[in-house]
């Protein structure tokens, strides 16, 4: 396609490969159609020339992108720089015109071939879905057995015995006076839950829009732009969930709660991102975010997200605390000696394995799209895996929570959050494996950038999965203790 050697990736490469006929047009998903006319008949409604743009230079040995004319490539004398959306800027794209010419020898029917050949085969995606569904069916069967058989028998037996016999019973009913005792460090847990709720809603809406075709890969940067804008606008749910849970835990330092919800996790992510940006700036990479864009991101954060978080927290604290189905005893009950499998750490480690098993194949394709410059377009599969992940995190956490309550260990608040959020640890391990086995990255700067951005992904995934597991377990515990007669 190029008249000179190089390794650029092109924004308008597809357009350059088209062989046009008089009066014909083309349409790329996610972009407005453009009409083209024969030479000499240009008008405001149609164009004659296909403009070829370049965005950046990439290498398989580095994660540092550079502007097209950073090296010894010819610069276009009539250079034009189209406006870019926020997602393109964050990905380091600098769109400009190219001095190279298009190749008209490629046939219309073959214009997509170079992309489709580079795409992973669909049958691997189906294998991923089937693998995830098997795990979900296994967990669903376990939960159904507990809910319909074991738990039903427990409730019937507990409701039939008298008080004297109940004193001799063992099991989850015996901790009814402690199961809703407020957790330690409830402030931090409520902040994590608020941020996790914000990320969950953002992810759901973004993937749903991508499934409908509004965020097509052809519209570069649209996915990232949508995610950032949604996160900014979803400060209200974050503040509301955090404040409501903190009030339920009996907390009274509402100002600290609101400030931590608005600033803690976003501050950690921004600090990491800022350090990565300094490295990119020192290396002269086009991925270095301009100072004006950083100011704009900060303005979105403090000007929109933070005030919306305060609004959500205001309504959260005005609401009554969530009422529990049973009263809490004044004196904590002593927890019996636990077996190895019912101790906190083994349960948490085991709880993250099954959710990770649902996503690891999709994770490979996502990492390929980020670091190996492959286009990801199977958002239908991704959305389905997202739903399966939500179900798996919920069911795995509920199962382990039930086993721990049967062992009369009532410290379930933090454990329910950490059980499903430990999936993020396996994500980190897989990212390290991917770096050493699949990538050819060399250089300290690229290595630091890879792991710096990976830590952002891990933190977001930690909050997201932990929140799912917590609320599933919270619903389960409230449900089972609401149907048991307690004297």
From TrEMBL:
UniProt KW Hydrolase keyword: no
Domain of life the protein comes from: Eukaryota
One cellular component (GO) term of this entry: membrane
Keyword Iron: no
Key words, A-Z: Membrane, Signal, Transmembrane, Transmembrane helix
GO biological process: protein localization to membrane
Leader peptide range in chain numbering: 1-25
Membrane topology recorded in Swiss-Prot or TrEMBL: Multi-pass membrane protein
Transmembrane segments: 126-148, 191-215, 221-246, 258-282, 288-317, 348-371, 377-405, 417-436, 448-477
Pfam families registered for this protein in UniProt: EMP70
Compartments reported by the entry: Membrane
Alphabetical list of InterPro entries matching this protein: EMP70, MFS_trans_sf
Assigned protein family: Belongs to the nonaspanin (TM9SF) (TC 9.A.2) family.
Protein name: Transmembrane 9 superfamily member
Naturally occurring in which organism (per UniProt): Scleropages formosus
């Amino acid at each position: 396609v190029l008249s000179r050697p190089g390794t650029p990736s092109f924004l308008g490469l597809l357009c350059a490969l088209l062989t046009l006929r008089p009066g014909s047009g083309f349409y790329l998903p996610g972009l407005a159609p453009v009409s083209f006319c024969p030479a000499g008949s240009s008008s405001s409604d149609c164009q004659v020339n296909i403009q070829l743009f370049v965005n950046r230079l990439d290498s398989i040995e580095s994660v540092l992108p550079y502007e097209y004319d950073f090296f010894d490539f010819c610069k276009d004398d009539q250079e034009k720089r189209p406006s870019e959306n926020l997602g393109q800027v964050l990905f380091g794209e600098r769109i400009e015109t190219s001095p190279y010419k298009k190749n008209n020898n490629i046939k219309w029917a073959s214009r997509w071939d170079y992309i489709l050949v580079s795409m992973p085969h669909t049958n691997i995606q189906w294998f991923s879905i089937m693998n995830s569904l098997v795990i979900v069916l296994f967990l669903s069967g376990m939960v159904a057995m507990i809910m319909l058989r074991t738990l039903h028998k427990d409730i019937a037996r507990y409701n039939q015995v008298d008080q004297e016999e109940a004193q001799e019973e063992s099991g989850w009913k015996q901790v009814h006076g402690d199961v809703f005792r407020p957790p330690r460090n409830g402030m931090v847990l409520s902040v994590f839950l608020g941020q996790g709720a914000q990320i969950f809603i953002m992810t759901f809406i973004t993937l749903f829009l991508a499934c409908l075709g509004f965020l097509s890969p052809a519209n570069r940067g649209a996915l990232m732009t949508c995610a950032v804008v949604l996160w900014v606008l979803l400060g209200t749910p974050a503040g509301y969930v955090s404040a409501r849970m903190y009030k339920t835990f009996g907390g009274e330092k509402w100002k600290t709660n609101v400030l931590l919800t608005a600033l803690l996790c976003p501050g950690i992510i921004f600090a990491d991102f800022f350090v990565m940006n300094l490295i990119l700036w020192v290396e002269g990479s086009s991925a270095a975010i301009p100072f004006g864009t950083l100011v704009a991101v900060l303005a979105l954060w403090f000007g929109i997200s933070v005030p919306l978080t305060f609004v959500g927290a205001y309504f959260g604290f005005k609401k009554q605390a969530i009422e529990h189905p049973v009263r809490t005893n004044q004196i904590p009950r002593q927890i019996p000696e636990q077996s190895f499998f019912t101790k906190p750490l083994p349960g948490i480690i085991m709880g993250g394995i099954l959710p990770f098993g649902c996503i690891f194949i999709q994770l490979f394709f996502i990492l390929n799209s980020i670091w190996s410059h492959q286009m990801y377009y199977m958002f239908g599969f991704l959305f389905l895996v997202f739903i399966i992940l939500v179900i798996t995190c919920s069911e795995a956490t509920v199962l382990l929570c039930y086993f721990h309550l049967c062992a009369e260990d009532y410290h379930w608040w933090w454990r329910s959050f950490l059980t499903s959020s430990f999936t993020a640890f396996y994500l980190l391990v897989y990212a390290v494996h991917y770096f050493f086995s699949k990538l050819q990255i060399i250089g300290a700067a690229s290595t630091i950038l890879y792991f710096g951005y990976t830590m952002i992904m891990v933190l977001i995934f930690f909050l997201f999965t932990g929140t799912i597991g917590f609320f599933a377990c919270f619903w389960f515990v409230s449900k089972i203790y609401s149907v048991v007669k307690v004297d």
